[in-house]
Amino acid sequence: MEFRSRTVRFVAPLLAFVSISSISACGDGASSPGAATAAARLTVVGSSTVSPLMAEIAKDFEKGRPEMRVDVQAGGSSRGITDVRNGVADIGMVSRALKPDESELGHTLIARDGVSVIVHRDNTVPGLARAQLVDIYTGKITNWSQVGGPDLPITVVSKAEGRSTLEVFSDYVGLSYKDIKAQMIIGDNQQGIQAVSSTPGAITYVSIGTAEYEAGNGAAIRLVPLDGMTPTTQAVAEGRFPMVRELNLVYKSPAAPNVQALIAHTATPKAAEIIRGQYMVPVSR
């Protein structure tokens, strides 16, 4: 089956770049904020969950602004924080709440998203409990038949250290990075979906919004109920799903005028429409 991606190209091992018209080529590198302002250019770097969303919002922002170009690059929330701090990005994308030691950065919450466990579409496991997830990710449960699924070895797929999706998952199951026994380490959501789609016994955890979109467009994955709760964007919006995270933009304060303009655009009705179209939950502000 051909793997379909909405906006992110699968690039091994850990870094993916969004590949639409408002995004620079991988080799260009990020411009400095000072240069970006002078050339009416903004560089937005970070979370692979947020980058497809920001790419679409950036395209809408550029309409009617022929002098403006917004370059959106994925690479993870940690990279978003680091690049803003180091002055090589104007805005960082962070798919989690900010930590106390990041409080010097300005930040704006633009949406919420959930994190779901996914398995191959043909895996018949009816659902998982938190305790079963712990046992799977620590190597105590190694076959799907032990949790009501098919007689099939489990391939544990986990995120690279520093990825915000890993942090959300780890907080929920109460495991540290060193506790997780994975056969495969991936970087972004698309890599996780690719791994599960091509490996019948695989399990991983990804953005609910990304998973819903890809499953609806033919990816061979299934979102698994957790402790009896079905993972959907609607459940996230209604506060009925436990693994939920913030999607933030970060920047140095005071924000430059072009940064302020793009941040303000994320609160427009059109941006809210884009957010819902990406299977995520807009926030009021």
List keywords for this structure.
285 residues; alpha/beta; D-Maltodextrin-Binding Protein, domain 2; 2 domains; ten-stranded mixed beta sheet; 10 helices; 31% helix; elongated; disordered N terminus
In sequence order, what are the helices and strands, one letter per element? HEHEHEEHEHEHEHEHEHHE
Mean pLDDT: 87
* End-to-end Cα distance: 42 Å
Percent of residues in beta strands?
A: 15-25%
- What do we call the CATH homologous superfamily of the largest domain? Periplasmic binding protein-like II
Helix-residue proportion: 25-40%
Q: How many domains, in number, for the residues?
A: 2
Instruction: Report the count of strand segments.
Output: 10
| Rg | 19 Å
CATH-scheme architecture of the largest domain: 3-Layer(aba) Sandwich
Largest β-sheet summary:
10 strands, mixed
Unreliable runs, pLDDT <50, ≥5 residues? 1-38
Number of helices: 10
Q: Give the structural class.
A: alpha/beta
What is the CATH topology descriptor of the largest domain?
Answer: D-Maltodextrin-Binding Protein, domain 2
The dominant shape is elongated
